[in-house]
Amino acid sequence: MRIISVQEAATRTFDVCVVGSGASGAITAAVLAERGLSVLILEQGTAIPPGTDHDDVEDPDTWAYARDGEGWSKEGYPWSAMAFGGGTVFYGGISFRYEQRDLDPPPALLGDADYAHWRLRLDELEPHYDWVEDRLGVSGPSHGRVGDYAFPHYARGSLPHTPMGGALARGADALGLTPLSTPMAISGARDRHGPGCAELTPCTGFTCPVNAKADVISRILARAEGDVSVALDTRAVRFVASAPGRAKRLEVLGGSPRSRRSVHADRFVLAANAIQSAALLLRSADRREPDGMGNSSGQVGRHLAMKNSVYVRGRTQERIVAHQPLRHRYSSVCVLDHLRGAEFPGQLGGIIYEANPWEDPEADRPGAGSLLQLECLLGDRPQARNMVRLARSRDRDGLQRIVMDYRQHPLDGERLDVLQGKAKDVLHAAGAERTESVDSDFATGSTHLHGTLRAGDDPATSVTDRTGRLHDYDNVWSADGATFPFAGNFNPTLTIQANARRIAVGIS
């Protein structure tokens, strides 16, 4: 891998241009380069130093319009992270595999009666899961089963519970539940990737100071074989077609002085996240395609899914550890007993896992005890009305701002209410005397982004086919979460990465 200027990138024709350097983009680029193809990655963000707080590198000019509880705000967050390595440099490392129900949900859950599903099977993803878990060094239970969910064999043994996770596990066990170690893309001890976690910062929201967290720069791109070039601080503006169904070039904005240039490639892969990839196609409208590139179905940008979530926290009377700097791993324990149940609307529940808080304002107060926090997470029902679209107003680059038009399905709200009740039971059993729910504001921005270019058999009701290729274009693919018809109940990063490898292997 080498970093090049956008000026140099504009002088070559690459075999493949990948838009986005995050979870899916890095995997796609590495796989294609190892097959002998020349690959260019375009990344709008820049390299982030170790130990950096995400709040210190946010750029409000890139934020979107989004619905909030009282109307619209200009603080929608349309990213996993705008950075080299994407969301993987700031995420908590939670690395679940999906189950078959997440890939092939009941037809009534898919939002459109005439939608033809992509029919992706879990056994198709399994070799790609294996590859990604090995490259990242994912740890987790070697074997286990809760209901219909089976943990596979992971590359390494599970990491020890955090002190808070141990308390939560004891609480779950007292309720007759089956607490399991959260599968994590984090090195707990010295291994081939580095010295292991030193608990210097919280995981979520910070780049790792010691390379213990499996970001795709250190674990994938730095080890990739072949011709991989990366142009940072380079924004993809719009595609230009050479003929119907064939993208010729991609207009980009970057360089010094900042100006528009064109990048040429034989193939293009969208890997910028479900919001940004859809927005790029919508910005690529022209005389032949006034509604956006690849949008003959009218489905580009629709069925945006954010994953519904809420935090539930409580305080123990006794302090769990003598000093609690809140620098532990984000999660070490999960509860999967409530993936489904008759008490949930449609019998579809979700997952509960330890989600250590970023701060505890009472940590230094004598007798304050310890703060325990869980996150409840569930996949949202696809709705065509939930969409990415473009506003009339423009940002400093002169491009139309993004609108994230999202509303929670009422049944998903009911599911989340039931799930957080289950989480409160765990907290009480773990010794928390009072509990409260804390809004995650997922509707105004989430790092769990799905839909907008969903895959399917019928070009009239989907944007891409099961290989990720746009129905309307021979040489453009989507490899990020945009292709997912249903968000699934689990943290999506590992599945996005496994699916990206599956798509990359099939690109010819």
- Quick one: overall form? globular
Number of strands: 22
By CATH, the superfamily comes out as FAD/NAD(P)-binding domain
The CATH topology corresponds to: FAD/NAD(P)-binding domain
Low-confidence stretches: none
The CATH architecture would be 3-Layer(bba) Sandwich
Major sheet, described briefly?
8 strands, mixed
Number of domains: 1
What is the CATH class name?
Alpha Beta
**Mean pLDDT across every amino acid position:** 92
What's the alpha carbon Rg, rounded to whole Å? 22 Å
Q: Helix count, per DSSP?
A: 9
β-strand percent reads: 15-25%
Structural class: alpha/beta
- How far apart are the first and last residues' alpha carbons, in Å? 22 Å
* Helix percentage range: 10-25%
Top keywords for this entry?
single chain, 508 residues, alpha/beta, FAD/NAD(P)-binding domain, eight-stranded mixed β-sheet, six-stranded antiparallel β-sheet
Would you mind describing this structure in some detail?
A hairpin with a 2-residue loop joins strand 6 (144-146) and strand 7. Helix 4 (122-136) packs across helix 9 (493-506) and helix 5 (163-174) packs across helix 8. 19% of the residues lie in helices and 24% in strands. The protein contains 9 helices and 22 strands. With 508 residues, the protein is of the alpha/beta class. The chain is globular. The chain has a single domain (2-506), classed as FAD/NAD(P)-binding domain, CATH 3.50.50. The strands form 5 sheets. Strands 1, 2, 3, 9, 10, 11, 12 and 22 form an 8-stranded mixed β-sheet that branches. A 6-stranded antiparallel β-sheet has the order 8-15-16-17-14-20, with helices on one face. It has a 4-stranded mixed β-sheet with strand order 5-4-19-18, with helices on one face. Residues 82-304 form the Glucose-methanol-choline oxidoreductase N-terminal domain.
